[in-house]
Amino acid sequence: MEGKSILGLVLCALIFGAGFVISGDVGQYFNLSAFLIVFGGCLGTAIASFRMERLVFVSKVLRNSYRTRMREPAAIVEILVDLSVKSRIRGLHTLVEDERETSILFLRRALGFVVDNYSREQTTDILNTEMYFFKQRRDESERVLRVMADICPAIGLAGSVVGLIGMLSGVNDTGVVLATIPIALTSTLYGVILANFVFLPLAARIREVTDHDLLLQKIIIEGVRAIQSELNPRVLEVKLKSFLTPSAREGQLVSLARIKERFQIQEREEEAPRMAAPEEVGVSL
Questions:
Q1: What is the DSSP string of 72-111?
Q2: For the chain, how many structural domains are there in total?
């Protein structure tokens, strides 16, 4: 997670906790019996509802969604435009070098299809299939968390009923009443907090990361299709920038000197006159 997000989350948690502190004794909001009822009930219903493999997968998705730094769409556009220029200068087969170096799995697979001479239709079909099932897996992970969020308030209500039963059974005993009332009230509190402050935000996080990844994958598919069809890099730049917000479209990405420096392209003397003409590689300087 980004530093700003962590700082904002900590600040909001402190403000939220301050409301409990100001209202009185903080210890009255902690009840082990109520917590065990709610937490155990939620965990049990999750295990009963989903396979353990699915729950483990959800935990991995959550860990990666907070630990992995998301690439910006503008950075992907820049990479694809660079690759387009490089392929026109040195040929599609040279993209195998970038296939090994890129840290983006989806882009690496796409470049592998290009280097292996897959047709444009085959490449598009495979990548669209991969993107579809990627979305399906993420949607299932989000659904797991939303189901648990729906369950938590009901489990909290069940804990409250347990507390009320205990209170009524000892109505003539003040000690029993005082011991069971906190269970009845804090169980509902724990159920609401787990649902609205844990599981729903986690589900929203998965949705946010999934939408971002799908956008990057769509940009990559369009970029790879254009590279295979040898589209003019300047036209490709304009096309891919349509995926970006207006504020991210400023400036031009195509620069022959920068491309050569990035990919360490050395001109041979006999090729220098041909490479020096921007119009031959589709680059307007």
A1: PHHHHHHHHHHHHHHHHHH-GGGGHHHHHH---HHHHHHH
A2: 1
